[in-house]
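fyi for ur records
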Amino acid sequence: MKKAKDYEWLIAYPIIELAVSGNIEAIEMVLKHLEHYIVKMSVRQFYDIHGNIYYRMDEEIRHRIETQLIMRILKFKI
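which gave:
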């Protein structure tokens, strides 16, 4: 039997409805909810002149992911 806490990580349906209808606050809530995942997908390897590896978040990639997510939210059909 599933417990209520098993579903805590889900975005509430009314928030999804508002986001799909174009509510800016709801879209921001969805972006905030997915922020850790977006940051994780935006991390890239960089090398210095000595060949050492550094991991940093690529702001351009993050912006592209967020933009695509917003476009997909607004096109989503419920």
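The two ends are 28 Å apart (CA to CA). thats all i got for now
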